Amino acid sequence: MKIALHYKILISLSLAFSIGLFANFETSELNQKPSWFLYFQEACQFVGTLFLNALKMVVIPLIITSIICGVAKIGAESNFKRLGLKTFGFYGLSGILAVTVGLLCVNIFEPGIVNPEIREKMLSTHNAFDQEKLGSAMQRADGGWANLIEIFHRMVPTNLFKAAVEGQLLGLIFFSLLFGFFVSRLSDKLKISQTTFWESLNAVILSLTNFIISFAPYGIFGLVTPTLMTVGLDTLWVMGGFALTVLTGLLIHCLIILPVMLKFLGGINPINHLKAMAPAMLTAFSTASSSATLPLTMKCVTQRVGVSRKIGSFTLPLGATMNMDGTALFECVVVVFLAQLFGIEMSWAIQFSVVVMALLTSIGVAGIPSASLVAIIVILQAVGFPEETIGIGVGIVYVVDRFLDMTRTAVNVFGDSCAAAVIGKSEGEKEYYPEVLDKGIIS
User: Fold this and answer.
1) Can you give the pLDDT at residue 379?
2) What's the domain range around 383?
3) d(Cα 119, Cα 344) in Å, to the nearest integer?
4) Would you place residue 418 in the very low, low, confident or very high pLDDT band (cuts 50, 70, 90)?
5) DSSP state of 343
6) Is 263 exposed, middle or buried (0-12, 13-18, 19+ CB in 10 A)?
7) Structural domain includes residue 443
8) Is the four-CA dihedral 153, 62, 8, 290 of positive or negative sign?
9) Out of 77, 129, 148, 341, which residue is the most buried by the measure of CB atoms under 10 Å away?
10) Phi/psi at 211 (nearest 5 deg)?
């Protein structure tokens, strides 16, 4: 019997918790760790580092090909100018509001502020950790206006290959957006050859990424177990505070921000809309995939809400790959949380760069399983986190990621449906819900 990947991950996390906490309890009273403890810890770190390196390997080609393919396809639509501007405008506004909510929550609740002893234990899971690297990261994160200006300078790199080698991914993302847009403006003959090339390359990279993700249970075990072996139950409190912060932000965005946008931008009753989209949101929650939920999302939007197929077929497939409010919110919370956890001061300018990177990476890699894992690595590298802290951070976050992934996917789907409804009203479509309610479709 074939076991689904998310069940394998749950089994892996269960084993990591059991073995990690058992080893911690068995050796907590010893002044010196026994040899079996050190050997097993090093073996787990070896597996976890291999998995993390494999993910980093596909980051750059995945982002470049995904963005170029997406923008080239969208820019080629005949009604792109009008509907495209409205769609991107709504997605941009909701995305900015989502990450703002996330940043406010993580700065108010400060889930990463922990006892210095717990922090030292987490960092000690990687013997190669260099305190000087953490110090240099703290200096890079405290640049004020100069750092903000540098963000815009990095958006236009003088050498793409140098930017790729140095991990300056913001410039690569900006170039990919421009490249994809101008591919869509080519003549039909040239455009077909370009899109065929990039789509085939993207398909290969996606297959490679999915292959790497298939080893996630082993990689996650290797990342999580050493931390639990060293820190023990203290880690659970840290992860619980982080999860509650993310859930608070997602609930605020889903139950306050998006309903307000529905009401004021489209004159739409949020309660009726939430009832109409309940089946799609529940499916998104259970599958943790916006793309897999897309057929049901389109059915709910067109049949239960009443949006025309013309609007739904344009906005919803686009939203399933590019409108990721929940994912962008999650990424912002993760980066600031890890900065708090590792004692890295993040100025408002650096947090602004995190907002930009979260919005752009949620567009670039949202179409694959565990996309946020890849995006988080991108952002952590871009804002100057030491390499040693990235592995520890990913291991901590992934412990609670499955439930948070389900929740933010439901928020993503709800955001897509709100965009379709508001844009439909702006195109002159009539009131949706009275007719739908009269037919008894919403129950």
Assistant:
1) 79
2) 5-438
3) 12
4) very high
5) T
6) middle
7) no
8) positive
9) 341
10) -65, -45
Find, among 423, 162, 209, the residue nearest to 305 by Cα. 423
Under the phi-then-psi rule, with left for phi > 0, alpha for psi from -120 to 50, and beta for the rest, what region is 324? beta
In a domain, 250, yes or no: yes
Structure confidence by residue, pLDDT tens digits, 365-384: 555 545 677 777 777 877 77
DSSP string, 349-408: HHHHHHHHHHHHHHHHSTTSTTHHHHHHHHHHHHTT--HHHHHHHHHHHHHTHHHHHHHH
CA distance 84 to 299: 22
For 232-346, list the strands marked E by DSSP.
none
Q: Are 64 and 157 in contact (CB under 8 A)?
A: no
How many domains is the chain partitioned into structurally? 1
CATH number, domain at 143? 1.10.3860
CA 70 to chain centre: 17
**pTM confidence score:** 0.70
Segment 156-160 long-range contacts (CB within 8 Å, at least 24 positions apart):
none
Residues 6+ away with beta carbon under 8 Å from 121: 230, 231, 234
- Which residue type sits at 406? M
Classify the C-alpha dihedral 384-389-391-395 as positive or negative.
negative
Instruction: Report yes or no on 186 lying in a domain.
Output: yes
